[in-house]
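Thanks for the sequence, V.! I ran GP-PDE domain-containing protein right away. Repeating your input here for the record:
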Amino acid sequence: MHIVAHRGAEDLHLENTLAAFHAAAPADAFELDVHATSDNELIVIHDRTAARVAAIDSPHRDTPIARLTSAQVKEITLNDGSAVPTFEEVLTSTTLPIQVEIKSAGAVPAAAALVQRYPDQLERLLFISFVDAALVEIVDRLPDARVGILREESLSDLRVIDYIPARNVAAILPSWKGLNVATIADLKARGIKVGCWTIRDEYAFGIAQQAGVDYATVSNPTRFPAPSPAGELRW
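Predicted structure:
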């Protein structure tokens, strides 16, 4: 199975920072989270505000990203002293494949606009989300985009597949706690890969290996190395 570094190498560096992404190897890919600013810049951060990861005296730490301009976001100082990266900065300074988690449907226009400026980068991106409407819209805006459907533990509701062309549906991504061998076999028979998130200990890693997933998202890619399938990862 392929290894995906969760929010970069989040156990080694502050999550969703350039340092974390640059340390993602030996993973085959890394995952990040995006929100859009009020002026339609795609920003890499997990929460709707920077409060959890920003320095205590940082400006704008409690203001929703959607209310801030991109210039105001750049005034935020994170706990490690760095700035909140834009997705463009990550895209142009890294080479590994990326899982791009769209945190809200409002980020879709900014994501599509950015990829349209860098069309050669689309192949390395897998857009993932718990928000089904966001996945439908990203494919509407980027007809060649590949998407992954995020779920918690249950895979009982996958109706969104009916609204996305089969060629665009790359993966189903449940929590490792929701892995089911029979369901995985059924999805793979339909040409859909299966990943899981987020592996933080050896027990969970073993479950993922036994289940036969295609991708395992891990908190520390140096702690959970695994022989990757031959060839480069392609979503």
